[in-house]
Amino acid sequence: MLRSLLISILTVIAANCFAAPVQQLYSPDRSIRLDISMAAGLTYTVSADGVNLILPSVIDMELLGGQKLSGGMRVKNISRRSVNEVITAAIPDKRRLIPDVYNELTLQFKNGFSVVFRAYNDGAAYRILTGFKNDITIKQETARYSFPAGAHAYAPIIQKREGQDIYHTSFEELYPYGALDSLSADSFMYSPVLISPRDNYKIGLTESDLDDYPGMFLRGDNSAALTASFAPYPLTERVQPGDYPQKVVAQRANYLAKTKGTRSFPWRVMIIARQDKELPGNDLVYRLASPSKIKDTSWIHPGQSTDEWIIDINLFNVPFKAGLNTASYKYYIDFAKRFGFERIMMDAGWSDNNDLFKINPAINMDTLAAYAKKQGVKLSMWTLSMTLDRQLDSALKQFQKWGVDFIMTDFIDRDDQQVVNFYKRITQACADAHIMIMFHGAYPPKGFNRTYPNNITREGVLGSEYNIWSNKPTPAHNLTLPFTRMLAGPMDYEPGLLNNAAQGRFIQQKGNPMSQGTRSNQLAMFVVYDNPLQIFSGNPSQGYLEPKFMELLGSLPTVWDETIILDAKVAGYIVTARKKGNQWFIAGMTNQARDITLDLGFLGDAGYDAVTCTDGANADHYGSDYRIGTKQITKKDKLPIHMAPGGGFLIKLTSRERHTY
């Protein structure tokens, strides 16, 4: 027996000392394969269905003292495992039950570094681990992604700000499509970036489980490759003055992060799709994130809210002077109650931006808090991030007294290690106070919404507000977001504008902003876009004139039991079906005029009562033209639908079978 045990030990030692120079890792369905090479540093390739999608790509990390993952890279241990589990999402922005099925390979090296690789049926990922006794300082991480010649990308190129370095950004850019080799070293972009490597394949590059470490940017080099770049640690900061002051970095260090010696670093995520429609429903980033740090999430209440900022409180048909005052917010509370919104947002201006206790003299917060409570509507408050940080404990106590269960904090515009830790600290403090939080001027969630479900959504998107001062939110842009930004988690686009125009008839105007596209297109966004706390940005005075439309909008859920993308093409169109209880909601958006036929075979056997909102006969030139109707349907029916240019539709289906939930 002793001889057999000795032979087994020697076999393991030999296997580890003379590890094959290339290790292979397959997805559970064996359609995706990673080839991991240790011949010259650490590189990997990724193929799907036998097609090479990612060519040899480099992984490395260097500490400030000179130690490198690739230095003296001798294998200590190789381990594998397979996982087949189901995650129950605390706040299900796509689906409540999430299959988590993958194969994993871990390479442990003798130099204190390890790398874990995972292969899923819909993507791949890796992360670096360190195992040092003392704290470490990360000088640099290398993540280079190489693609076949001719690869293209939808890349959010950052527009550098005057007087600030390239790492200052609100993460709100367009996603122009172009050849990857046209992107130079000056082309900095944040993730997700969507790559079209060849044929119909798409790869979403992003990250997950970002913690105590800077976020990943990508940059070109005039080849079919992208290289990661990370904001160095901020040594000193200065305050950028203005109406919304914020901290910007004055001097950066020659390293990325000081952190614990034994830890795991963010996942580098590669979402793989054979068809465009596989992207918007993908939840790989969520699966890779750390489980919730909040044990009891029962106090977190998703739902819909109003916000007044985009329309500049431009109310009409009211007996009071509209503006930042008690009467206007009472009007918003009444509107929310009338049409089923759970809360209203009190945006910038309710207090001094630099002092949350210096309340606008035209607003009586005690009166509003009492009135909102009487009406069964919650108040939500905007804050400036620098002010919230300074007044955090006392502000949260005051919010609790007002019955506030949701706040926004704004103007952050960075993701270096210090700011990443700011997100975590603020979110934990809000969780302790049972308050949900949304970050604006923010990087995408990247799985943080799984770890801290009370960070219910984030901005990090060129959204509805841009209609005020630009023509950037085109139908094509809005139809790029589900395939790009949305891969990294929920996004606060703030749809619902009730002044709508065809793209060629669009006019920029403050106070009465237009959307480019139709009213039905705006309505569809509430179902197409992931956001557990959807914000209606339209004018309630106009909404009161259209009660059937607002009743339909106000009845829409914001979290879902299931999501199915029926058909889609990046920047072209999307048709999304979502289930909540005994109801289905089907929504579509298009760039250009389009006729489709809905196959309802995914429905259950019961009959359904349908409420439909489709583009009106004249929506191609009068964007606010829509038609609401009702009908009874079954899964055997085929529904023809016409969408105008920049158009859309929404169908609400309620099962005629009785269910108890």
Distance between the termini: 59 Å
Q: Count the domains.
A: 2
Name of the CATH class of the largest domain: Mainly Beta
By oligomeric state, this entry counts as single chain
Query: How much helix is in the residues?
Result: 10-25%
Subunit structure: Monomer.
Domain Glycosyl-hydrolase 97 catalytic: 316-461
Domain Glycosyl-hydrolase 97 N-terminal: 26-291
Signal peptide: 1-19
Describe this structure in words.
- The strands form eight sheets. Strands 5, 6, 7, 8, 10, 11, 13, 14, 20 and 21 form a ten-stranded antiparallel sheet that branches. Strands 1, 2, 3, 4, 9, 12, 15, 16 and 19 form a nine-stranded antiparallel sheet that branches.
- The chain is about 15% helix and about 35% strand.
- A hairpin with a 2-residue loop joins strand 3 (about 40-50) and strand 4.
- It has two domains: about 20-290, Beta-galactosidase, Chain A, domain 5, CATH 2.70.98.10; about 460-485 and about 495-660, TIM Barrel.
- It is of the alpha+beta class and about 650 residues long.
- The N and C termini lie far apart (about 60 Å).
Q: Can you describe this structure in just a few lines?
A:
This protein is α+β, with helices and mostly antiparallel strands.
